[in-house]
Write a structure and sequence with these properties.
about 300 residues
């Protein structure tokens, strides 16, 4: 027995020397498994039961009944459309504006450091605070947005931006773009600074047009960082909760997947249905993460740009 224990310890030490990263990651993985893994498994389990929030001990297995309920619920499909619309438009706009902002901040000009600090202010403000700020700005009577638009003649009277319909979802998208564009700009600026300046100097000597330099040099070399930034924002947007909930609460026109899961779980006490909705959201987020991993494993070092 002693010989077996000695052999096992030597095997562990030998593999620990070969893979030291495993030794350092193991404590973190154990903590992560306890904090995130166990609640996730419980949520998946409850999604197959008729659990009520106030009486979880008497939950009974009902198979796919909760998922069938989601399939037949018109609000569920509207929530999916809201979430996909919000995610697609907000991430697209944040990527475009973030790339433009990163290109501007990369240039050498007086006050660049101060401008970089100012640009990060929206990202530094907590989401709850920024959402409340935008809620007051969108107010149909006292909001500054209506006041300015009426003053310059764009509107004849104030608009209830958060009153429902597509305009409410548009208002939430604009607030999210203002909040998270600096995050995209910061990531893309870091990627731009890693591109060797030799490429730009060679293109300048050859007389290449700046737009062609952007499409032939900047974008290809920025692609890995751009993909990471987009994936991060996709994951956050799919799980959006606080911004929309503060702006429009449980309004069906703007309800996201996370808000729907919260409503079913806490407002209606349907722990099983809420867990099923949360599980579906987890599957969507996991698919995005797996897609990123597949792209990352297929990524190859870029050759010298040709223009």
């Amino acid at each position: 027995m002693v010989e077996g224990l000695t052999r096992g310890s030597s095997f562990f030490r030998r593999h620990a020397r070969r893979r030291p990263w495993l030794v350092f990651l193991l404590p973190s993985l154990c903590v992560l498994g306890l904090i995130a893994g166990w609640p996730l498994l419980r949520t998946i389990y409850f999604s197959f039961t008729d659990a009520r929030l106030m009486n979880l001990s008497q939950a009974r297995l009902v198979g796919l009944q909760n998922y069938a309920y989601l399939w037949q619920d018109p609000l569920w499909w509207q929530v999916i459309r809201n979430t996909l619309t919000f995610t697609t438009i907000s991430v697209f706009l944040e990527t475009i504006f973030g790339l433009i902002l990163a290109c501007v901040l990369k240039q050498n000009f007086t006050g660049r450091g101060a401008l970089r600090a100012v640009v990060l202010i929206p990202w530094a403000i907590p989401t709850v605070v920024s959402a409340q700020i935008w809620a007051w700005m969108y107010h149909d009577i006292y909001g500054i947005i209506n006041h300015l638009l009426v003053s310059i003649g764009v509107l004849n009277q104030g608009v209830a931006w958060l009153g429902g319909g597509k305009i409410s979802l548009t208002a939430a998208i604009l607030a999210d773009v203002w909040k998270t564009t600096p995050f995209m700009a910061l990531l893309l600026l870091a990627g731009l600074q890693m591109i060797p300046q030799d490429y730009y100097e060679a293109a300048k000597i050859d007389g290449v047009h700046p737009l062609k330099v952007f499409y032939k040099i900047t974008l290809p070399l920025l692609k890995p960082v751009l993909i990471v930034a987009i994936i991060f924002r996709l994951l956050d947007s799919l799980r959006i909760f606080d911004l929309i909930f503060i702006l429009t609460s449980n309004a069906s026109d703007t309800m996201s997947l996370s808000i729907y899961a919260r409503q079913q779980t806490f407002d209606f006490q349907h722990m099983g249905i809420g867990s099923a909705a949360s599980t579906c959201l987890f599957v969507c987020v996991s698919c995005v993460a797996v897609f990123y991993l597949l792209i990352n494993t297929q990524e190859r070092p870029h050759a010298r740009p040709k223009y």
